[in-house]
Amino acid sequence: MTQRFEGLSLAQFKRLAATTGRTLRHQPAAIGLIGPLGAGKTTFVKNFARSLGIKKIKSPTFTIINNFRLGGRQLYHIDFYRLSKQSELKPLGVPELLKQKTDLILIEWLDKFPALKKSCDLIINISFAKNADERNITIYKN
User: Fold this and answer.
1) Helix, strand, or coil here: 111?
2) Which of 58, 11, 20, 35 is nearest to 110 (CA)?
3) Does 5 score more than 80 pLDDT?
4) CB of 3 within 8 A of CB of 139?
5) CA 62 to chain centre
6) pLDDT score at 117
7) What is the rounded CA–CA span in Å between residue 99 and residue 119?
8) What is the DSSP string of 27-69?
9) DSSP of 62-97, one letter per residue?
10) Largest CB tally within 10 Å, which of 40, 50, 71, 82?
11) Helical (H) or strand (E) element with 125
């Protein structure tokens, strides 16, 4: 299944992220985020997490993985921006996280490791619209 949203304003984009978060609140899911630098991947994660009651979200560009407690499970925010080799994923525990299917996992820069796409329940592609303040979103469900 594919959903496409074109020309979303920042407010609409944030609402879409929050709605996605509320929809997935009680179920495990791996979500891959794809898009160019500055498109809004971290903004999506922040608004997704806020809808779950998590207030302080910082991009894990340098730490690679941030995790937050969600009741009896975790929300993992992973950023592959600084990674370039598949071999870097195993020491971080990424393959195990994706196999567990118990938590919420949001991965920025999923396109750097295409083999992981099959492990994601949703893939969200964020792109710039004609108007620089708007975004086009395509959501693919695996």
Assistant:
1) helix
2) 35
3) yes
4) yes
5) 16
6) 96
7) 8
8) S-EEEEEE--TTSSHHHHHHHHHHTTT-------TTTSEEEEE
9) TTSEEEEEETTEEEEEEE-TT---GGGHHHHTHHHH
10) 40
11) strand 122-128
Residue 63 confidence (pLDDT)? 85
Give tens-digit pLDDT for 60-87.
878 899 999 988 899 999 999 999 999 9
Q: What is the DSSP letter of 6?
A: E
Amino acid at 3: Q
Residue 102 sits at the vertex; the CA angle it makes with 97 and 107, to the nearest 5 degrees, is: 45
Beta bridge partners of 73: 70
Tell me which residue range forms the domain holding 48: 2-141
pLDDT of residue 51: 96
Pairing of strands 104-108, 73-79: parallel
Domain count, the chain: 1
Q: How many residues does the chain have?
A: 142
CATH number for position 51:
3.40.50.300
SS3 104: strand
* Alpha-carbon span 59 to 52, nearest angstrom: 17
- pLDDT over 90 (residue 57): no
